[in-house]
Amino acid sequence: MSRNRYKQNTYYIEQCPITKKKSRRRELPVNGVRLQLAKVIRENGVSVIVGETGSGKSTQIPQICYNEGLIGSGLLAVTQPRRVAAITLARHVALEMNANLGEVPC
């Protein structure tokens, strides 16, 4: 068989949006300091976390808290300057955690 025939029968499967998001979220700067963040949050009553836009503060830190068992009552508040931003963030985190909006994942 010719080489061209193989090329015609080759199919490329693109990553689904969720897989792309999971691989992108691993690259966020906040993930490089997950354990340190969890320790700081665990050891202090109040923690102020400062980072660049797009570093994963709003989307990843709630998940770090959840995964590390730092959310005693099962509720965590994350504030945003605009209602639309808050709703978008909540949807984004729910999608990443494979949960329904407003529910705590199992």
TrEMBL record:
Question: What UniProt keywords are attached to this protein's entry?
Answer: ATP-binding, Helicase, Hydrolase, Nucleotide-binding
Please indicate if the UniProt record lists Transmembrane as a keyword.
no
Q: Name one GO molecular function term.
A: RNA binding
SUPFAM superfamilies, alphabetized: P-loop containing nucleoside triphosphate hydrolases
Q: Which InterPro entries match?
A: P-loop_NTPase
Read off the PANTHER family from this record. Answer: ATP-DEPENDENT RNA HELICASE (PTHR18934), ATP-DEPENDENT RNA HELICASE DHX37-RELATED (PTHR18934:SF99)
Its name, as the record gives it, is: Helicase ATP-binding domain-containing protein
According to its UniProt entry, this protein's organism is: Loa loa (Eye worm)
